[in-house]
Amino acid sequence: MRSFYVIIFFSFTTFAQEIPAGAYTVDANYFYGNIIPHRQSIRHLITGHPEGMVISFNRKTFGKMVWEQTYNFPDYGVSFHYQNMKNEVLGDMYGIYGHYSFYFLQRQVILRVGQGVAYNTNPYDREKNFRNYAYGTHLMPSTYFMLNYTKQDVWQGLGLQAGLIFIHHSNASMKSPNTSTNTFAVNVGLNYTFDKKEQNQYVHTADDSVYRQPLHYNIIFRGGIDQSDVIGTKQYPYFTLGGYVDKRISRKSSFQFGAEFFWPKYLKEYIRYMAIAYPESPASGRTDYRKLGLFGGYELYVNKLSLEAQVGYYVYSPYNSTGKLYERVGLKYYFARNIYGLIGLKTHGAKAEVMEFGVGVRL
To answer: What pTM was computed for the model?
Structure first.
């Protein structure tokens, strides 16, 4: 009897090893949820439960590059998103994203992070749609996070997945109004695996235990376009020049500390406006609009792409319109070993200030 079980186990193991892995997957997910009322000014716009679809195409990795092994063989690809906001004032959203998918718990739990651009069908208009305080433009940056239980290739390539999804839409104060929306929803979907080949085998050769780098010095320049909260005012350029030192402690991670100088041109006009509209205000129209901040940050490296998060404090800010603390989340892409491009969102709590684009040099 024991020999029978051994034969069955050996046969099953051999059969499992002979099944080729798929190099690509597609998945389609339906979601249904709620818009989070993060501001009082958008509560009147939340009249129903938004629903929609996310369709994704994914390329699997098998460890041919070291970063693929470091992150447990993630997927990467593109996603298309449609969302019915269940309010004619808000319109509908269409988005396209680049994404990474990371696996946990024996590759049964997946965390997908997507960043892209969304199109709104009915943004704010002074005459035709003055109630839409959430979106001031048709086009806007958008981010989504998906946490799912997934079971791939259950039957002839078909699989199932279900879980939670969070979708953020905001034009980053490029044009007012911009209170943004955050959708939290449940999702359920199907996935399909294809391009199965015998050579699709996971490779394990990386050793991260001895990965270290010395201190490096960075010079960065960022720029963007911004507008104050006063609807109808002009858009102005926004510039930042900074420097920081980073210490890479592993193949995945590094820490940062630095300083940066801000030229928020929109704030110069806003100070002048407030001095005229509210003469009782203690600030005059000649108050300096520029700011100086110190910040600390963390950078997470994924191949040539990296994600960074920073928290800063204004040590010089004569006109305190936003508070002393600021935050930044963003992406970097390393064109070469020491040169990179940046895109990031600078915020003050839940209040976005500017979408920044820039370049940097790592010395």
So the answer is: 0.87
